[in-house]
Amino acid sequence: MKQPPAADWHAEENAARYAAFAHTASLYRVTSRFLVSVAGVQPGATVLDLACGTGVTTQAALEALDGSGHVYALDSSLAQLAHARAAVTARNVTFVHASADRPPAQVRRVDHILCNSAFWQLPLEPTLDSLARVARAGATLVVNLPAAKVPRASRAVASDLQREGRRARPSLEAMMQQLARAELGYCAPPRLRDAAASERYEDRLARAVARSRFELRRSVGLSVPVSPRERYDWYSIPLFRQNVLGAMEPDESQKILDRAYELWSPDAELEHSHWVVFVFVLRAP
Question: What is the pTM of this model?
Answer without folding.
Answer: 0.91
